[in-house]
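Reopening this one. Same input as before:
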Amino acid sequence: MTTAMKGELVVQRLESLFGHVRFNDDFWRERKEPFWLIVDTILSQNTSNANSGAALRNVLIKYNTIEDAFLANVQDIAHEIRQSGLYEAKARSISAVANEIMENYGGDTWSFIGGSYPSARERLRSILGIGPKTADVVLLFARDFDIIPVDTHVFRVSRRIGLAPQKGGYEAVKAALEDEIPVGKRKFAHVALIKFGREICNARQPQHWKCPLTDLCEYCQETSCVAIEPR
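Same output, byte for byte:
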């Protein structure tokens, strides 16, 4: 079986398992303002969905526009996002993004993240606290670039299955997945692999009896996993 074929099979089985999955990003689409997607992605770093979601709700209640965030004191932003953890660093990043958009792009976030994928990614990464995953999540959902951002769950699952190399960092895993996941299926794959990693292929006790990928999974083959639900 070629790796590309394995990637197609993984996507097909995740589609059968989950059906249609989507990223919950109505909050910024309703405002027609991707600045809030950037904020949400910053808040989601190194914390749970519950914590980042609570912090985002506070931000959306407190600040209605980019200008509001631009004019806000960094300490005030930090106060609103305490639940997200690392809130002082995240507040500085949010403030830096708002400053860049207001001062250099006339308040137009679409211009800030516009242009080619490499140029938009470089612009996002120039902001303190925005790494490759945060930039890629923004560009996947705001710009629909056909890419696969790699978070902790995607790292773990793709390496266990054998879709990505065991060694190498973010860029190596992302490149491998984009070679192996069919064009047009990468957004689904990103969301589905995260859901799969949270619900089934978790870090400490993967639930093999729920997994539709055991026959494809290198980790399962190496560890002789038993796909039977324990009593």
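So the earlier flakiness isn't reproducible anymore. For the record, The radius of gyration is 19 Å.
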